[in-house]
C-alpha cells in the first residue's frame, strides 16, 4: 500500500491522505470523511480500516475539512465537496464512492441528498456510484444547533438536515448505512425515520442497513473480524462488489 498526502485546495488545511493498493489498479475510489462532531478528528482517523480497504484494492482519499468553532455551517460542506471534486479529477474513469463516519457521515448524507453542494463544485450527485453512511445524524447536526445557540439535544429538521432533502432526487445510488446496536441516544430512531422517508419516496431499493451488535457508536471501525479484516471494511467491500450488479 502507498500513502501520500496532497492538497485538494489552496488553503493549508485542505489536505487529504490517499491510500492506493500496490500495484495500483483501476478500482473504485472511496472519499471517506472522518468523524468528530464537526469539531474534532482528522484525516488520520480510522487508519486501520482505511488501510484494510486499500489493502483490498480500494483507493481511499481521506480529507481534512474545516472544523467548528473556526468554521461555521456550511463551510465544512463546501470543503467536503471540493475534496470530492479533486478526487474525481485525480482518478478519471474510476467509480467514485463517498462516505464517512459520524460527523463525516452527516457530511456525506448532506452531499447525497442536497445536490447543490456538489453542484457548486461542478460535480453531479449522479457521478457517485455508492454511498457509505456510518452512524450519521440525518437531522440537523448538533454542532449546527450549537452554532445557532440552540440546545444541541434538540431534534430539528431544516435545510441543514439530510432528511429535509430526501425526495428532491429521483434515484439513489447503492447505499450502506451502518449503526451500532448501542449507538448514541436517538441515532437509531432518527435513522429509522430516514429509512421510512426513503421508502415513502421509493428510494430504498438499493439501501442496505446493518446494525452491529456488541458495539457503541462507531467503535467497530478498527475491530478485526476473525479473518483479520474489520467488519466495517468487509461491509464496504460488499457494497463495492455489488456495484457491477446494480449499476
Automatic annotation (TrEMBL):
Species of provenance: Candidatus Ruania gallistercoris
Alpha/beta hydrolase fold-3 domain location: 30-184
UniProt GO MF annotations: hydrolase activity
Keywords assigned: Hydrolase
SUPFAM superfamilies documented for this protein: alpha/beta-Hydrolases
Protein name: Alpha/beta hydrolase
Classification lineage: Bacteria, Bacillati, Actinomycetota, Actinomycetes, Micrococcales
Amino acid at each position: 500500500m502507498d500513502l501520500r498526502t496532497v492538497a485538494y485546495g489552496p488553503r493549508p488545511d485542505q489536505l487529504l491522505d490517499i491510500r492506493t493498493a500496490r500495484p495500483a489498479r483501476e478500482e473504485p475510489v472511496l472519499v471517506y470523511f472522518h468523524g468528530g462532531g464537526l469539531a474534532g478528528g482528522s484525516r488520520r482517523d480510522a487508519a486501520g480500516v482505511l488501510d484494510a480497504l486499500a489493502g483490498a484494492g480500494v483507493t481511499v482519499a481521506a480529507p481534512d475539512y474545516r472544523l467548528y468553532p473556526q468554521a461555521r455551517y456550511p463551510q465544512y460542506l463546501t470543503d467536503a465537496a471540493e475534496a470530492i471534486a479533486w478526487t474525481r479529477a485525480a482518478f478519471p474513469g474510476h467509480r467514485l464512492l463517498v462516505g464517512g463516519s459520524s460527523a463525516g457521515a452527516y457530511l456525506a448524507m448532506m452531499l447525497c441528498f442536497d445536490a447543490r453542494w456538489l453542484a457548486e463544485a461542478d460535480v453531479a450527485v449522479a457521478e457517485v456510484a455508492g454511498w457509505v453512511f456510518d452512524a450519521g445524524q440525518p437531522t440537523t447536526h448538533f454542532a449546527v444547533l450549537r452554532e445557532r445557540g440552540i440546545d444541541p439535544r434538540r431534534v430539528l429538521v431544516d435545510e441543514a438536515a439530510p432528511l429535509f432533502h430526501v425526495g428532491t432526487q429521483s434515484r439513489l445510488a447503492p447505499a450502506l448505512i451502518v449503526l451500532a446496536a448501542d449507538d448514541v441516544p436517538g441515532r437509531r430512531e432518527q435513522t429509522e425515520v430516514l429509512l421510512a422517508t426513503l421508502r415513502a419516496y421509493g428510494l430504498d431499493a438499493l439501501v442496505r442497513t446493518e446494525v452491529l451488535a456488541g458495539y457503541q457508536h462507531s467503535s467497530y471501525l478498527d475491530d478485526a473480524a476473525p479473518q483479520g479484516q474489520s467488519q466495517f471494511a468487509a461491509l464496504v467491500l460488499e457494497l463495492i462488489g455489488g456495484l457491477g450488479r446494480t449499476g
